[in-house]
């Protein structure tokens, strides 16, 4: 009897254990199916977000019309996608935001973007949290537990897409030598290699864009239409108001405009360079001389000014001698007085005071027929007196204080220092905010098409602002080389 009772008791234990294990297995099966369905819905919502972001980004051009079209396109693209196999994805304005960078933390609502659309070339789409129904046997399990309910998991899709184009300030100046993208300045008599010039500009020299006027006194300092893109020299299909100073201001502030995609290319031009532009140019400095107005873009990471005729710590007198009496190179009219450039056009160097601040951002480089894969070979400071001679003694020479190392990969320069007080002063923005990407025009191609005049752009020059602008008197910038053509793109890129 005892043996029989023991067997029956063990059989009961097995049944209980099996039942418990079955419940666990049943639960894991339900969880697996639930997670699979949630993952599937996540994929559906992500696909909808991707499609909506790409559709919206194609319409963005920095205008109110572009913002409105982007919102409409995004909603339409999302609704053509479904989740849970049959439910269309519906977007509200709250699911859409805009920014000037794919990694920005300052995304703007649709309403904010509509009121200030300039520079907003990226769209962020969030499908919003969607609930995944729990499979039926999970609900049965919940009832069996006695709580009678389940917590439904949620998931969503999110994507960022944008017109990742080069940031171009909506201004143009004349290419000094438009026929020679990679020219050379001979220094054979001085015993050093030839120097590179790019469309007539020499790296490391300071130029005054306001007075960069080889076409004569009647030449214009061009503001560009930052919105409309001409198809050719005779195109007059532009909105004239988009070429106004008022329209250009936020683009000058941000330093962005998606108007040049291929080189050579054409732009719509306008005249301007008014004193009202100072606030937008000088927003790159921590303490601008003029009110920053509506420009809210942060200043440069290094906001120390490199003023030519000041002495003391941090100024060019610390790394060059003699310090030039004038901030920038003095350019004079070249040609026959009939708006014809005699080329190559090079700045005069009658005395050391004619040279601007040298190498505050980057050094001069040696000539090569095409850009070397490893970058151009820079000169060293012992070459200064040969690179920048003058008829009046003494010649411009470098002092030992010029930086010889930097934490950045760029050649050493005062601006590239990231600490210390001699050449660096901490800003709250990002590096290279003081770099202006300026269109270099073949000014002989200027064509007036009513209110939609065009210019042929040969290249994009990088110009560094060592000091704040004082328009209409001056806008001093140091040439830092051409922007590579392959950086000019309007490809729509997707980010997650």
Automatic annotation (TrEMBL):
The chain crosses the membrane at residues 12-33. It holds the Pfam family Tad. Keywords: Membrane, Transmembrane, Transmembrane helix. Residues 406-428 are annotated as: Disordered. The keyword Membrane applies. This is Putative Flp pilus-assembly TadG-like N-terminal domain-containing protein. It comes from Noviherbaspirillum pedocola. Residues 417-428 have a biased composition (Low complexity). The keyword Transmembrane helix applies. Signal peptide: none annotated. Residues 12-58 form the Putative Flp pilus-assembly TadG-like N-terminal domain. It comes from the Bacteria.
